[in-house]
Amino acid sequence: MQIKQIMEYLNAEVVCGEANLETEVHSAFGADMMSDVLAFVKDQSVLLTGLTNPQVIRTAEMVDMKCIVFVRGKQPDHTMIDLAIKKGIVLLKTTLRMYPACGILYMNGLEAGGTV
Amino acid sequence: MSGIKLSYRVDGDNFSSAGEASEQVKMRLKQLGVDSSIIRRVAIAMYEAEINMVIHAKGGMAYVEVEPDRIVLSLQDEGPGIADIELAMKEGYSTAPDTIRALGFGAGMGLPNMKKYTDEMKITSEVGKGTTVDMIIYLSAK
Ligand SMILES: Nc1ncnc2c1ncn2[C@@H]1O[C@H](COP(=O)(O)OP(=O)(O)OP(=O)(O)O)[C@@H](O)[C@H]1O
Ligand SMILES: [Mg+2]
């Protein structure tokens, strides 16, 4: 699916990266522990998280994520937004909690992807 | 490709900037046309080591050598050292405080992850003196 479809499914707002909303993504990973992202992400290109600090963007960039969805209404700060713009990563935010956000995307065909 | 040497100071007082060195190495390797799966392994291993230096050792130095057949990483700090390296290598072992866990780290996955993503890894450490993590990733397929 395209990133803009994720927005529709989750009733999410774009924080930055409007130009890349048509990027195709196939699988996602949900975590509040960046340790787990680094250890288990293989080819997933969307990260759902409730954590907001600059290392979330750096971690996502290290594993080549294209989009980060902040759940529970979390708002990334300016440092994070600047970093994401530099790296071309789309940031979205939704008021949904982690479980429903992941569930809705999964039901609509966004896969879990491989594990390393 | 001839040998390229890079070095970075990793600031131990600034959690926000942790990972900058790894990010720059990632960019350099991309410019050099290194295979993307290799870049990813280097980036993750170096980032884990860089974060460790920041959260456990108040920073240090990161050295990267890009050779024709391999990438050599050395992360050196003068932090508290690791008393039991075998124990530290165990998945899930962490001494990170709750403040670090609240930032998304401290699951005890970093060192095992570094081992997984590199072809060779060696930790040299002395309590009270510091820690050096040396890693090698070969450029030909693993
Ligand atoms: N550079 C270092 N200096 C001192 N101690 C270290 C260093 N690197 C690792 N350690 C010790 O080894 C333990 C395990 O490290 P590891 O990277 O596997 O886990 P972590 O950093 O605690 O959590 P995670 O990597 O999942 O965020 C650490 O908790 C710490 O006690
Ligand atoms: Mg670690």
Structure description:
The complex is a heterodimer of chains A (116) and B (142). Chain A has 116 residues and is α/β, with parallel strands linked by helices. Chain A has helices spanning 3-10, 34-40, 54-62, 78-87, 98-107, and strands at residues 13-16, 28-30, 46-49, 67-70, 90-93. Chain A has a five-stranded mixed beta sheet. In chain A, helix 3 (54-62) runs parallel beside helix 4. The longest helix of chain A has 10 residues, at 78-87. The relative contact order of chain A is 0.27. Chain B is α+β, with helices and mostly antiparallel strands and 142 residues long. Chain B has five helices and five strands, in the order E-H-H-E-E-H-H-H-E-E. In chain B, helix 2 (36-57) runs antiparallel to helix 5 (110-117). Magnesium ion binds at residues 48, 51-52, 110 of chain B.
Summary of the model, kept short:
In chain A, α3 (about 55-60) links the parallel β3 and β4. Chain A has helices at about 5-10, 35-40, 55-60, 80-85, 100-105; strands at about 15, 30, 45-50, 65-70, 90-95.
Helix content of chain B: 25-40%
Mean pLDDT of chain B: 95
- Total count of strands of chain A: 5
What ligand species are in this complex? Answer: adenosine-5'-triphosphate, magnesium ion
Strand arrangement within the widest β-sheet of chain B reads: 1-2-3-5-4
- Give the overall form of chain A: globular
CATH architecture of chain B: 2-Layer Sandwich
| Name of the CATH first level of chain B | Alpha Beta
Number of strands of chain B: 5
Domains of chain B, number: 1
Share of residues in helices of chain A: 25-40%
State the end-to-end CA separation of chain A.
Answer: 23 Å
Topology readout:
The complex is a heterodimer of chains A (116) and B (142).
Chain A: H1 3-10, E1 13-16, E2 28-30, H2 34-40, E3 46-49, H3 54-62, E4 67-70, H4 78-87, E5 90-93, H5 98-107
Parallel strand pairs in A: 2-3, 3-4, 4-5
Antiparallel strand pairs in A: 1-5
Helix pairs in contact in A: 3-4
Chain B: E1 4-11, H1 20-31, H2 36-57, E2 59-66, E3 70-77, H3 85-88, H4 98-101, H5 110-117, E4 120-126, E5 130-138
Helix pairs in contact in B: 1-2, 2-5
Bound molecules: adenosine-5'-triphosphate (ATP) and magnesium ion.
Magnesium ion (MG) is lined by residues 48, 51-52, 110 of chain B.
